[in-house]
């Protein structure tokens, strides 16, 4: 793009000019680099933050399928962990940047095509996370009241797509399959005193259901041994301090670990020591948290008539504690229960057929002009801190590609002006960041009225009425 920059040098009062009175120099302006980020969770916001810091002339449009931002920080973090949500303060600062725009209620693959984003922007960044569940692949997995932990978390956290999930809490026993932090989160929510949940931002409908819950015992079951448990010491310590709850472990699961524990890496050593100490501790309480090891689920058992879950059949494993290798013994046992929560991991998926995607790994494949970060780049592992690190690394690559001309930004791109026309033609109502703040204000007001930080709006139509533009 070429422009003429003409400066008038003398006073204008005599209206007498000569050619020498004008300095006309051709000035070359690089077109503004336009980037689209799809997904408004930690990966998207940290990516935007770093790009805006290192390439301040770039403009960023962030698209989000929900009307509201923040992804798993809003819908994945446990309601009794409000301190984790403090990262939202950082994200809100990013949103105030004049070169950043948020556009909620825009679903890639449905409301706008990936090819349309490629045409409108110099680069497209995919940070939309992993929205599917890994499955066990065993008989009975589709029985009533066998639920993924991801959906259960979405239910109590107010994720619109999970608000109508049917959760039957009339049984005294729950089996959670998996031993990561999410598995411990759902166990803690099930066993927490209802009064402690009343002051969180847990949804009112789930609070009502939990207040009527008959659950007394939660089994947290894993295939491997205590030295391989995937939860962290912070999560375990919270469970050991939960009022009225005993954390019960079988001493035999620790046989053969005594000589190994002192030589473990520090974090693993501390966790293992706490597990052993807890297994020996006298406790009181009428509810029970039972981490159970070396058990492989082979079948979920149900009532033949009603199709409701009745228990889980496990094969008992042998384990080499040092190598973490298990083998089946051929011996089985059954845990009776009325609810099974499957917490064995998330899975990424392609939301548009034009995205280059590795379906085996569940991650986006890099291609020219397309970047990714977070779980859809790395796979579903790690916490917010590791997501931040990946987002910074990948955004540094984008900035480097701009600086080295590897990414062609010399051609003008329309950016959101083109996408907006497309969305309007398709009847899509969007929510900008000011619209989100309106929703935020209403949620806080409703929460304050009942002694909570907020009462999340779970109906998308209501969100759009409040914040739509």
From TrEMBL:
<keyword id="KW-0560">Oxidoreductase</keyword>
<dbReference type="GO" id="GO:0016491">
    <property type="term" value="F:oxidoreductase activity"/>
</dbReference>
<comment type="similarity">
    <text>Belongs to the ferredoxin--NADP reductase type 1 family.</text>
</comment>
<feature type="domain" description="FAD/NAD(P)-binding">
    <location>
        <begin position="34"/>
        <end position="190"/>
    </location>
</feature>
<feature type="binding site">
    <location>
        <begin position="223"/>
        <end position="224"/>
    </location>
    <ligand>
        <name>NADP(+)</name>
    </ligand>
</feature>
<feature type="binding site">
    <location>
        <position position="64"/>
    </location>
    <ligand>
        <name>FAD</name>
    </ligand>
</feature>
<dbReference type="InterPro" id="IPR021163">
    <property type="entry name" value="Ferredox_Rdtase_adrenod"/>
</dbReference>
<keyword id="KW-0813">Transport</keyword>
<keyword id="KW-0285">Flavoprotein</keyword>
<keyword id="KW-0249">Electron transport</keyword>
<dbReference type="Pfam" id="PF07992">
    <property type="entry name" value="Pyr_redox_2"/>
</dbReference>
<feature type="binding site">
    <location>
        <begin position="382"/>
        <end position="384"/>
    </location>
    <ligand>
        <name>FAD</name>
    </ligand>
</feature>
<keyword id="KW-0274">FAD</keyword>
<feature type="binding site">
    <location>
        <position position="43"/>
    </location>
    <ligand>
        <name>FAD</name>
    </ligand>
</feature>
<keyword id="KW-0521">NADP</keyword>
<feature type="binding site">
    <location>
        <begin position="179"/>
        <end position="182"/>
    </location>
    <ligand>
        <name>NADP(+)</name>
    </ligand>
</feature>
<dbReference type="GO" id="GO:0008203">
    <property type="term" value="P:cholesterol metabolic process"/>
</dbReference>
<protein>
    <recommendedName>
        <fullName>NADPH:adrenodoxin oxidoreductase, mitochondrial</fullName>
        <ecNumber>1.18.1.6</ecNumber>
    </recommendedName>
</protein>
<feature type="binding site">
    <location>
        <position position="235"/>
    </location>
    <ligand>
        <name>NADP(+)</name>
    </ligand>
</feature>
<feature type="binding site">
    <location>
        <position position="108"/>
    </location>
    <ligand>
        <name>FAD</name>
    </ligand>
</feature>
<dbReference type="InterPro" id="IPR036188">
    <property type="entry name" value="FAD/NAD-bd_sf"/>
</dbReference>
<feature type="binding site">
    <location>
        <position position="382"/>
    </location>
    <ligand>
        <name>NADP(+)</name>
    </ligand>
</feature>
<comment type="pathway">
    <text>Steroid metabolism; cholesterol metabolism.</text>
</comment>
<dbReference type="InterPro" id="IPR023753">
    <property type="entry name" value="FAD/NAD-binding_dom"/>
</dbReference>
<keyword id="KW-0496">Mitochondrion</keyword>
<feature type="binding site">
    <location>
        <position position="72"/>
    </location>
    <ligand>
        <name>FAD</name>
    </ligand>
</feature>
<feature type="binding site">
    <location>
        <position position="375"/>
    </location>
    <ligand>
        <name>FAD</name>
    </ligand>
</feature>
<dbReference type="InterPro" id="IPR055275">
    <property type="entry name" value="Ferredox_Rdtase"/>
</dbReference>
<dbReference type="GO" id="GO:0005739">
    <property type="term" value="C:mitochondrion"/>
</dbReference>
